[in-house]
Amino acid sequence: MVFLVSGHAVLRAIGVRTTSALQHVVYAVGANLAVGIAGGFALNAADFLTPLGWAIWFWAVTVAAALVAAIRRDTPDLPAWPARARVRLWQGTVLMLAVFVATGAYALAVRDEAAHREFKYTEFWLLPSARGEPGRITVGIRSAETQAQRFDVEITLDEQPLAVLRSVAVAPGGTWTRDIPVPALATPQRAEARLYRPEDNRLYRSVSTLLPRSLNEAR
């Protein structure tokens, strides 16, 4: 439907005459590409760029073109297929190699698609207290992952350890926040928070905020 059938039906509907089977197949593939491009514009305008939308589009084009071809009285005859050709050993070898390469590329594409995480991520932030309490900072995690995650959180104040939170569990779509008290000083302080995944202990996110002097002096 994507590479040949719809294009073949369109060629029959518009009455394109081809002189050989190879020429017909090439024209059909080209017509199918045109159908796919037109479908992209149409489905995007209809906000229906989904697998179901593409299936409906190709089936609708194929059925409509087939009906037009059946109604036409001057639809050209299909070119005759060539007689059975003898395939040589090296030709068969190249063909099988091409099949293996295409199959491997498809398998890699499926694997990469399954591992693609374009919209699966974790937000991480560090701000002065959301409730406006002086001498406190708020650290938060919001998960858009597909499964529950555990994180380790380390917080420093002016590069000195302030707090460590281990195995923080966050469910998909869930939000976790915690207020952390900070000592009052007469000078601005820089707080930094780091987010780690316990399974590999690698840095996943890093955020920081500057605590103004007025926030600390309010205590």
UniProtKB/TrEMBL annotation:
Organism the protein comes from: Mesorhizobium captivum
Keywords from the named record: Membrane, Transmembrane, Transmembrane helix
Transmembrane spans: 25-45, 52-71, 91-110
Keyword Membrane: yes
Keyword Transmembrane: yes
Protein name: DUF1616 domain-containing protein
